């Protein structure tokens, strides 16, 4: 099966908490196929957040999403493995952590997510999105 790459974010609440960060990295390490091939710490300006989340402009949670993502540094990861896009989204779980705790309690958002917006993780949702998002965070890599 072809290797695939995806872009993952460990959002500011995870990155600010060394215990959570270590636990999350350990769970990624324990995944049978997903591996971290690049990682960097990022601090966004308001403009960066507005650019990355342009598709959500106008939605009721857009401003609080941008405020959350500019509240402190966070980690950008490139994850690689067969079906990495799907496997990473399966590992982080449903968008809404409170619902995830009932339906998929083993997922990262169920374990660590705080609210519908402060849900601690991001994962690209398609091959095209993954390519665009990897370029956004890692423009220095030759893809
Ligand atoms: P992501 O893009 O971060 O992997 O998450 P997703 O596909 O599961 O969710 P999406 O609909 O793309 O939303 C992007 C981010 O916006 C915040 N959000 N807040 N109801 C709300 O308050 C709400 N809905 C979405 C979350 O931070 C979500 O990850
Ligand atoms: Mg999304």
Q: What is the class in the CATH system? A: Alpha Beta
User: Which sequence of SSEs, written as H and E, runs from N to C?
Assistant: EHHEHHEHHHEH
Name of the CATH homologous superfamily: Nucleoside diphosphate kinase-like domain
What's the domain count?
1
Secondary structural class = alpha+beta
What is the number of beta strands? 4
| Annotation field: number of helices | 8
Radius of gyration using CA atoms only: 14 Å
Q: Mean pLDDT, nearest integer? A: 97
Shape: globular
Distance between the termini: 19 Å
Query: What proportion of the residues is helical, as a percent range?
Result: 40-55%
InterPro entries: NDK-like_dom, NDK-like_dom_sf, Nucleoside_diP_kinase, Nucleoside_diP_kinase_AS
Active site: 122 (pros-phosphohistidine intermediate)
EC number: 2.7.4.6
Protein name: Nucleoside diphosphate kinase
